[in-house]
Amino acid sequence: MSPKAFDAAAMALPGATMDIQWGSDRIYKIGGKMFAGTDGACSKVSLKVSDIAFEALTESGRAVPAPYMARAKWVMFDDLAFLDDAEVADWLKTAHALVAAKLTRKARVELGLPA
User: Fold this and answer.
1) Residue 67 included in any domain
2) Exposure class string for 46-80: b at 16+ Cβ within 10 A, else e
3) What is the pLDDT of residues 14-64, one digit of tens each?
4) How confident is residue 87, by pLDDT bands cut at 50, 70 and 90?
5) Pair 49, 95: CB distance under 8 Å
6) Which of 3, 27, 68, 113 could form a cystine bridge with 37, CB 3.0-4.6 A?
């Protein structure tokens, strides 16, 4: 997946925003809460995954626990270029949904998400 395709897939999600943080990292958020991010070079990508996906991806070696965020079930992929577009888009949708589900009902309504 290209950095441009990753950005397009993340920003196509309802209520998604992107901020540059920690130098040049691109951080994707919903309701002010992070659901994905890339390093400044847009090569490494980290995102929130389900408990089952965290175990499967880290145990298989496809991803590693994300630095500082592993306790919250985030994984990191070392090279965005070698990831399948459809698979990454699906992971982004899941990450977005997992984080959006933790928002308050009021915040979800304001963002146009199902309450």
Assistant:
1) yes
2) bbbbeeebbeebbeeeebebbeebeeebbbbbeeb
3) 999 999 998 899 999 999 999 999 988 888 999 999 999 999 999 999 999
4) very high
5) yes
6) 27
- Of the CA atoms within 13 Å of residue 44, those in its CB half-sphere come to 14
What pLDDT is attached to residue 105?
Answer: 93
Dig out the tokens for 95 from the structure.
């990450």
For the chain, the domain total comes to 1
Cα-to-chain-centroid distance, residue 75 = 9
Amino acid letter for position 14: P
Q: Which residue has the tokens 């995102």?
A: 47
What is the structure's pLDDT at 43?
A: 85
Six token digits for residue 65 = 């626990």
Q: What is the CATH number of the domain that holds 67?
A: 3.90.1150.30
Domain membership flag for residue 59: yes
Residue 14 domain boundaries: 3-106
Q: In the block, which residue shows the tokens 């950095």?
A: 3
DSSP conformation class of 8: H
